[in-house]
Design a protein that fits this description.
- By secondary structure, this protein is an alpha/beta fold.
- Among the domains are: about 70 residues, Orthogonal Bundle (Arc Repressor Mutant, subunit A); about 150 residues, Rossmann fold (3-Layer(aba) Sandwich).
- It contains 14 helices and 14 strands.
- Strands 4-3-5-6-7-13 form a six-stranded parallel β-sheet, sandwiched between helices. A four-stranded parallel β-sheet has the order 9-8-10-11. Strands 1-2 form a two-stranded antiparallel sheet.
- β1 and β2 form a beta hairpin.
- α2 packs across α4 and α6 runs parallel beside α7.
- The longest helix is centred in the last third of the chain and has 17 residues.
- The protein is globular and about 65 Å long.
Length: about 375
């Protein structure tokens, strides 16, 4: 590689190349830590974040796997003494968004670690919000003879006819995030229904009665958001508050930073102003990304959080933490571990029982919902 190329190449890529060269040279022991973030940052004079990026990229490729508190190890599947077989070792993860969005990287990290210890690699495929691209990518993966499939669908349409092709070929499948009633597909989700209940219960406990659920996803097509809204409605009814059209606000346009931060009033900003005029005092957003945009839009148009509107999100992302947004914490690390456990069991025993796993969630109260209102006595 010439010096000019090295100057323009990102530092984490250069670290990856160095690590790969050491691996190919056999400069490691499977039983000892190959590297740590601290070690790499000191050796290459870079930040811990840059070192972590290099390690995470190699983990996602199945080359390294991490043991918490110890360091990163080289996958045994790279052993030169390993006997070549026709057994596929690649497990593919299909995502509707980038790995940097939300906390999905935590699930990827724990899943990669579980798989790598047994010699499996993880490949990641991002389809965006396109259902046709999901379908096309599934067809492509089926032709590549992968060992197993982890599928995070954008909407409830899981392209079952394509998944059946994997199933009949003996390729285990786990659906993540969206609940499916298909009895022969494994499913790992967080308890979205209880998350909606916890968010509503929290706001009711702060004295709010006029609470709205705000979503950019159509409920008819998105089971995770539908379950969150159902949990919200359950708590509202338990508090003696009858269903009202104002309780559900669906924003059909594609939401973005521009829609939130524009100095010329956007439909999104107008909707928030109208909600405030209609007496809404608190909002539960379908996820933290929507909560973040609501937070930014309110600040732009002069609505104060929490004085004018209290706000809750869902996912407990780093952004929600930095902005002080109350959120529902999902155990993404646990999701990765459960997915890995199910896949390895199915790969070992093709007749293993199908599993439907629902992981618990917890609310994390922050400044965005801590308005000084008198709590109501009729609701626990």
């Amino acid at each position: 590689m010439d010096s000019q190329t090295r100057k323009t190449k990102p530092k984490y890529e250069m670290i990856k190349e160095t690590l790969l060269a050491r691996i190919h040279a056999g400069d490691f022991s499977f039983d000892e830590s190959f590297c740590t973030e601290k070690m790499l940052s000191e050796q290459h004079h870079v930040s811990r974040i840059t070192a972590k990026r290099a390690i995470e990229d190699l983990e996602q490729q199945g080359i390294l796997y991490r043991k918490r508190g110890v360091g990163s190890f080289v996958s045994r599947s790279l052993s030169p003494d390993s006997k070549a077989t026709d057994t596929p070792k690649m497990i593919s993860l299909l995502l509707p968004f980038a790995t940097t969005q939300g906390n999905i990287s935590e699930a990827i990290g724990s899943l990669s670690a579980v798989l790598a210890e047994c010699g499996y690699f993880l490949s990641i495929h991002v389809t965006g919000s396109s259902s046709p691209k999901e379908r096309t990518t599934l067809e492509l993966l089926r032709s590549q003879n992968i060992a197993a499939l982890v599928y995070y669908p954008k909407r409830d349409n899981i392209h079952l006819e394509k998944l059946n092709d994997f199933m009949f070929s003996g390729c285990p499948i786990v659906i993540v995030d969206k609940q499916t009633d298909c009895p022969y597909l494994n499913n790992v989700v967080c308890d979205n229904y209880d998350g909606g209940r916890q968010a509503a219960r929290h706001l009711l406990g702060q004295g709010h009665r006029n609470i709205a659920f705000f979503t950019a996803a159509p409920l008819s097509e998105t089971s995770s958001v539908r379950d969150r809204f159902a949990g919200f409605l359950h708590e509202m009814k338990a508090a003696g508050i009858a269903p009202d059209p104002k309780q559900l606000v669906t924003c059909c346009e594609e939401l973005s930073d521009d829609a939130a931060l524009s100095t010329e009033l956007t439909p999104f900003q107008q909707k928030l102003l109208a909600m405030h005029r209609d007496g809404i005092t608190a909002i539960i957003a379908e996820n933290d990304r929507i909560a973040e945009l609501i937070f930014l839009a309110c600040r732009t148009i002069g609505l104060r959080i929490p004085e004018d509107l209290c706000l809750c999100g869902f996912d407990d992302t780093n952004v929600s933490r930095s902005l002080g947004i109350t959120s529902i914490h999902q155990d993404f690390t646990g999701i990765g571990r459960e997915v890995g456990r199910i896949l390895l069991a199915a790969l070992k025993n093709p007749a293993a029982e199908t599993e439907k796993i629902i992981l618990p969630v917890t609310i994390v109260p922050r400044a965005s919902s801590q308005k000084n209102l008198s709590p109501i006595s009729e609701h626990d």
